[in-house]
């Protein structure tokens, strides 16, 4: 891909601030949504814990800065709150392990990456390319985008909930499509400057249309047309004070400390073991997405991140960054497909855009109006933007498949198995707590497992395969020439 700004390029401060703001908008909705979902999980006594979206935003910014440092400023991707651990959060909260249980679980998940990174540092990462050739990684990357498509269309058709009736659903869809089409137009037909900020333009256009519809809805008192919740701003204005402008995020570790003994009375050796068994398997499963994301990003920026800065460094950055982010925000972090999609569409891979976005999230988490405005963006608008972001991720995976000869049934069955299992949503559940699984292998992880097994069965070991022997012979013949 021909990038406008490469990883090491440094646009002017003004442009970088705009690009960073675009990255922040792309990752914001999902990052803020995770703590809101976590706040709905009940403890064994029927109470709920409170996780602050602003704290999650702060944590995501800190985690991304840690990641950038570990990856030597070579990997342009943002870390945000991960949805994969929602089942684990529900389990530890339901067991009355409280805030400390969540923080300990996130630490275990992050340490999985750290341990694997140390192993890779010792033995190398060459086995990754053998384990996950294009026939595996291509469809896996495609599934990452396609598996998220339901979120995009769900947000568009129901505005994050359920449409009141058929005509409000049509209005939501139209607003989402306007957002998407403006992004597509700005990215393909706009000026050079517009092509770098299509998401800001598209989401802005969608917000304006939603605002006009909402004004009509509030004026006519038609609840179905009140797309933007003006009550958020009304409550903010009525209770206006210093904290309405500046307020510190309610960090999760502070909440755990403030509860004192009440937060630790259920944490003992057995509890820590249970927490570990809940989070560690999910951390291992997440490894598949980490590798797939970095393979995809490598393809976009045309630099192999698995070798430089190295998979060990990306894992360390992701693992330590997740621990740091969770310590503040209460949610484990992961590399965001929205961020990668933003890089692909804008063709701006400048690491400074990611760094400024991370610092911006840390700073703006203290500004109440900013968090308020972001929370007011309708889900139907974000759904339209996600069509572009998730679509680009899926297409990136399909582009990797161009290297694969699908006329060869040995390759065809591997791709077919991964796509059907992944798109079909096959999951593996282990354990049960109050009717909910304790450990869930996502459809992505299940697809990867099935794909790897299929690849082992239908493809011969290279050293025993004639083609493999031929390639080995050709490599041996080429070595003297290379040395000369």
Instruction: Figure out the total of helices.
Output: 22
Largest sheet features: 2 strands, antiparallel
Give me the strand/helix succession: HHEHHHHHHHHHHHHHEHHHHHEEHH
Order of strands in the sheet with most strands: 1-2
Radius of gyration, CA atoms, in whole angstroms: 23 Å
Description:
There is one protein chain. The strands form two sheets. Strands 1-2 form a two-stranded antiparallel ribbon. A two-stranded antiparallel sheet has the order 3-4. The two termini are 33 Å apart. It has one domain. The longest helix is centred in the middle third of the chain and has 33 residues, at 269-301. α4 crosses α14, α6 (134-147) runs antiparallel to α21 (443-458) and α7 (149-158) packs across α8 (166-188). The protein is mostly helical and 484 residues long. Mean pLDDT is 84; it is low at 463-484. The protein is built from 22 helices and four strands.
